[in-house]
Design brief:
Helix content of chain A: 40-55%
Distance between the termini of chain B: 65 Å
CATH superfamily of the largest domain in chain A: MucB/RseB, C-terminal domain
CATH superfamily of the largest domain in chain B: Winged helix-like DNA-binding domain superfamily/Winged helix DNA-binding domain
Distance between the termini of chain A: 124 Å
Number of helices of chain B: 10
Strand order of the largest sheet of chain A: 1-2-3-7-6-5-4
Mean pLDDT of chain B: 77
Number of strands of chain A: 7
Low-confidence stretches of chain A: 1-11
Radius of gyration of chain A: 47 Å
CATH architecture of the largest domain in chain A: 2-Layer Sandwich
Radius of gyration of chain B: 20 Å
Strand content of chain A: 15-25%
Number of strands of chain B: 0
Strand content of chain B: under 5%
Oligomer: heterodimer
CATH topology of the largest domain in chain B: Arc Repressor Mutant, subunit A
CATH topology of the largest domain in chain A: Phosphorylase Kinase, domain 1
Shape of chain A: rod-shaped
Helix content of chain B: 55-70%
Order of helices and strands of chain B: HHHHHHHHHH
Largest sheet of chain B: none
Chain lengths: ~250, ~200
């Protein structure tokens, strides 16, 4: 019985000794750790073994202090690490910013242009001439030539539309004419610009209406635009969208 | 392109944080300033060379230590020599901390007392006297406090080997400490300095 006990204790010590390094380094799991602690509590030899192992570990940790590397080494390694930085990546770093700035600039230019062109057409239509001067008519005919005839509506086809006035304009280096009609007692403005409005993007919001015509809503009123290769028309007035379209169609 | 460069810059700054640690590891490996500088330089150059194989924000220190120990062990096995002359403390001439914790009025527990018996210079000397395998593992486990798993990765050895080598390294250091205590005991004839011999396992057995 006594022999068995001693034997068990020896086995235990052997096992604990194997685990001491791990225990001191915190590499044991909870159960194994408890096993060591329990054993050490009743075995002086193993207690000293743990203690001496920990002393050595702590002695190293506390006594060894790191020295600063020589400045020459620091600078040579820094140099080594700086060396591969080329000029190009620095430029590359700014590429997104440059693109962003350009995009913002373009957007601003677009916005400003859009407002400029849009407003000019609209302003011209808003202030129609009530009478046409002789020079206006002359200029108008000299510019629009053949097409201009169509602007004067065939009275047989459109008995309700009466020509009131005309004014020659210049808009963004384009030739433009402002014609004023009366339709069933309501006033209709037609604004004609030489050439097509390829830059429809300037006129916003531009909503397709019928055929090649588009609608811009301004101050609650419809502005209809028809664009072909020779002349672009913009029509506005007191009539509703369909009536304006009817006028627009008769102008073609 | 830009992302790669950015990643590299991040890794570089991560590496440079551990210059001091790599240099000190190199000092304990090579045991002299010139070789330590070379080893540190080589380590950082190699790390830069293989920068793309490192994942940012993993363990940069362990990564660099692995490179340093690999270079050192390779050179060691090629030359198959350990320098005989040891430039103890040559790399720390301005050492003001002759006795560690001299001015620290910490709890006077037994271990603290024991530790304060030794100057850092003395411990350094004892550590440098060990074989390079032993001092490397002691630095990694006790000073750097890497886990066994990390050490096994740094030194590229199985965890079981880490455990046994560490155990042997501590025993070797203990032996050196006991030797030193014995010398002091003989010189002074006193008992004021002996601490570890109290726990000497060979006596306890």
């Amino acid at each position: 019985m006594i022999f068995q006990r001693q034997n068990r204790k020896t086995m235990d010590c052997k096992e604990v000794r194997r685990l001491i390094t791990l225990y001191v380094d915190g590499e044991l799991d909870v159960i194994e750790s408890r096993h060591v602690v329990e054993h050490v509590a009743r075995c002086e030899t193993c207690y000293f073994a743990v203690k001496s192992e920990r002393l050595v570990k702590r002695l190293l940790k506390k006594s060894i202090t790191y020295v600063e590397p020589p400045l020459s080494l620091i600078s040579s390694i820094n140099e080594l690490y700086e060396e591969k930085r080329s000029f190009l990546p620095i430029i590359m770093r700014f590429v997104p910013t440059i693109i962003l700035v350009l995009a913002i600039c373009l957007a601003l230019i677009y916005k400003i242009n859009e407002q400029r062109f849009d407003n000019k057409i609209f302003r011209n239509i808003k202030n129609p001439p009530l009478t046409a001067s002789i020079s206006d008519v002359n200029k108008f005919f000299s510019i629009f030539k053949n097409n201009s005839e169509r602007l004067f509506i065939d009275r047989n086809n459109s008995p309700n539309i009466r020509f009131v006035g005309l004014r020659y304009n210049k808009l963004e280096d384009r030739d433009a004419a402002h014609i004023f009609y009366n339709h069933k007692g309501r006033y209709i403005s037609v604004f004609a610009i030489s050439g097509s409005i390829n830059d429809k993007i300037y006129l916003t919001p531009l909503r397709p209406f019928k055929g090649d015509s588009y609608i811009i809503k301004r101050d609650g009123k419809s502005l209809l635009i028809l664009s072909n290769q020779d002349i672009s028309y913009a029509v506005t007035g007191d009539a509703d969208e369909n009536e304006l379209y009817e006028i627009l169609s008769s102008l073609r | 392109m830009m992302r790669i460069n950015k990643k590299r810059e991040i890794i570089k700054s991560e590496f440079l944080k551990y210059l001091k640690d790599v240099y000190n590891l190199s000092l304990y490996l090579t045991r002299n300033v010139e070789d330590a500088k070379d080893l540190t330089q080589d380590t950082f150059a190699r790390a830069l060379e293989y920068i793309d194989s490192y994942t940012p924000n993993t363990n940069a220190k362990a990564y660099l230590f692995r490179i340093a120990t690999t270079i050192f062990f390779n050179n060691q096995s090629r030359l198959n020599t350990e320098q005989n002359h040891l430039e103890f403390r040559a790399f720390n001439e301005d050492d003001g901390s002759e006795v560690i914790g001299r001015d620290l009025n910490l709890i006077e527990d037994e271990e603290e007392k024991f530790i304060r018996e030794y100057s850092s210079r003395e411990v350094e000397r004892l550590l440098l006297n060990l074989s390079f395998e032993h001092r490397t593992i002691l630095i990694l486990a006790d000073i750097e406090e890497f886990s066994y798993e990390e050490i096994s990765k740094i030194l590229n050895i199985p965890i079981g080997t880490v455990m046994s080598r560490l155990s042997r390294a501590r025993s070797a250091l203990k032996k050196e400490l006991l030797k030193r205590e014995e010398i002091i005991r003989r010189e002074t004839g006193g008992e004021n300095i002996i601490r570890l011999s109290k726990y000497d396992l060979s006596k306890a057995k």
